[in-house]
Amino acid sequence: MRSETYSTPGPLRLNLEIPSGEIEIETGNTDETRVELEAVANNDAIRDLVDNSRIELIRRGDGHEVVVEAKSRRGIFISIDRGPTSASAPDVRLRISCPTART
């Protein structure tokens, strides 16, 4: 599992991309964003995908953008629903805990 925590006061944008699996987002009264990316299956290829994923904080004006980019070697695909996926597709879980939007 990979884990990163960033100080993210002000506006926050999440740019999240995983080949398959699930994304969980929890918001709260905080100025930090925590990212946890883990391989669901016990498979070397999936662990390699997680280990080599891009997790980055980018300054954007008066706020921040958190980028999580996990790319499959066979290309990128995004599954909107939890329907059937290819047996060879990596399966990951991405958890984000971040500040509640302020208006």
Name the helicity range.
under 10%
Overall shape: it is elongated
The H-and-E topology, N to C, reads as EEEEHEEE
Give start-end ranges of low-pLDDT stretches.
76-86
Q: Distance between termini?
A: 33 Å
- The total beta strand count reads 7
User: Structural class, from helix and strand content?
Assistant: mainly beta
Number of alpha- plus pi-helical segments: 1
Strand content: over 45%
| Major beta sheet, strand line-up | 1-4-7-3
Write the topology of this structure.
Blueprint: E1 2-7, E2 12-17, E3 21-28, E4 32-39, H1 44-51, E5 54-60, E6 63-69, E7 92-99
Parallel strand pairs: 2-6, 3-7
Antiparallel strand pairs: 1-4, 4-7, 5-6
Describe the structure.
It is built from 1 helix and 7 strands, in the order E-E-E-E-H-E-E-E. By secondary structure, it is mostly beta strands. A hairpin with a 2-residue loop joins strand 5 and strand 6. Residues 76-86 have low confidence and may be disordered.
Task: Output the keywords.
103 residues; mainly beta; four-stranded mixed β-sheet; 1 helix
What is this entry, summarized?
This protein is mainly beta and 103 residues long. Helix content is 8%, strand content 49%.
